Amino acid sequence: MTGVPAFVARLDALLPEGEVVELASGLAAIPSFTTEETALADHIRELLHRNGIPVYLQEISPGRRQTVARMGPTAGTPALLLNGHLDMDPLVLGHPADPFRAQRRGDRLYGAGLHNMKSGLAAILGAALAVRRSGIELRRPLLLEFVVGELQGGIGTRYALESGLTAEAAVVPEPYSVRRIITRTAGVHKFAVVVRGVSAHTSRSEEGVDALLVLRRVCDLLEECRLPLHSKDFPTLPRLQIAGLVAGRGERHDLSGISYCADKATALVDLRYPPPYEPAEVTAALDQVLERACARYPKARITFEHPPDPVFGVGGTEMPPMDVPADSALVTQVSALLAEVSDFTVAETGLALPYSYCGNDTTHLARAGIECCLFGPRGSGPDTEHHVLITEMLACARTLAALIVLRCT
Prior knowledge:
Largest sheet: 6 strands, mixed
Number of helices: 11
Order of helices and strands: HHHHEEEEEHEHEEEEHEEHEEHEHEEH
Helix content: 25-40%
Number of strands: 17
């Protein structure tokens, strides 16, 4: 590991803890809900530009941008890609007050989006800045991607790949802990169950077809059916989650006029399924359920829509499983470097349940022929999704910095 030990010895000065906390706090201050990531993309572009790192924006749709940076030579395939998503989960009940102002409590940093995955973005930025200020010349390119729409199936990463961006290896610092390096994950199929009926007034409801009533029964049918998508390594899959319901009148689900039964009802569904199954097999399994539903409720018009109507912001592209070996050179390097730069050690590689039930952008990278893994900072305890452990975030940033030096010099 020529050059790495000397670089590691300088990391306290090159990447102090306070700077990583400041980077993460700045990211948390900018709301970046799905489809609303551009302000954060611009912030990251300005930060990298101020620090002399070549950077540009990709517009994946009108007004919606993501950030790409490249360090080292301008020609040649990057030896390493660090990829993270800008979009954050919706705020939920029980979130700390003033969620966009990061608050430190001991080793915990609280703030909106820090869990998934602004702490990982801070780790990428910290790693790049540490290498930049070290003065080390990169002989092979490094690629940084801050992408939109991971929560929509990875549309930003897909866009980057289709634009020609690639690399030999990639790390995505999703929040599954630096104690784990994951290379096997579930597939994600997000779809909508849509029922169209016939509206009728309460006084003559027997003349209508209540779309909401039919939708509830179709959802029950979905949960009762055992979809033929099983794997002994992923024992609780397939797993369905019906996480959103809306019903009303007309195509836009008008919620007024409740003296009339709903003539359109929609359920938004998240389906997790294991490797080796592919999207076509998932669709075929769901089609069988749909046939049963249509036969059972012939007066209603029932469809399974994938992706769901864009108005819901939950779909966009397929996110199949990732299933790659855990003994790759990349996994070995990340594990060894973590121990060099921190007090953490890797306890699990490859499959790590329940974390491998996730879906993420590594699936698109792996299918593009890029050796990749998941390795990122996490919180601890019952409020894990509201914070990140600063020690993990710093350990991740320093490991990624050392990996840059190892792979790109």
